[in-house]
Amino acid sequence: MDRDAPTNRARPTGPTGPAGTAGTTAGPPDPWEAIDRLHGWLTANRAHGGREGLLLRVLKLSEEVGEVAQAVIGATGQNPRKGVSHTWDDVRSELCDVMITAMVALRELAPDAREVFAEHLASVTDRSLRPDPSPGAEPAAGPPLSDAGP
Q: Is 95 helix (H, G, I), strand (E, B) or coil?
């Protein structure tokens, strides 16, 4: 990866800065407002609409995940031909791209993406962080959570 090479990523800008951001705000920006704006920009500038556009929007997520893998391989120097070609900051940046891309894809599928995500996150949090059962209670069905063998 050429560190000085320009990227091909379009970055929407507005009159007040990147993506129309203004100076300081009272709190962190609402990510879903930014996702709605990005979704609108992408929708207005897409080459394919309908079902094909939706499928391509979801496939974009696979591309971004591949970029995370590439950055991890580069940060660890796993490819002897390239050596250390990325940093862990690159990995973090690519992970953020995955999150943004997934949020935009969810927004494509659900105009109420904020609520859909909040409900799903609450459900996953509830089942994942549920207190362990009391002693003597039957264990939950499913495979054991450890890698220990029999």
A: helix
pLDDT digits (tens, 9 = 90+) for 101-150: 999 999 999 999 999 999 999 999 999 999 876 666 565 555 444 444 43
Residue 66 predicted with pLDDT over 70: yes
19 SS3 class: coil
User: Please, what is the end-to-end C-alpha distance for the chain in angstroms?
Assistant: 45
According to the 3-state scheme, what is the secondary structure of 87-132? CHHHHHHHHHHHHHHHHHHHHHHCCCHHHHHHHHHHHHHHHHCCCC
Residues 6+ apart with CB under 8 A from 94: 64, 67, 68, 70, 71
Task: Estimate the crossing angle of helix 88-109 against helix 31-44, to 10 degrees.
Answer: 70
Q: Answer yes or no: are the C-beta atoms of 51 and 57 closer than 8 Å.
A: no
Residues 6+ apart with CB under 8 A from 87: 75
SS3 39: helix
Cα 70-76-82 angle, rounded to 5 deg: 65
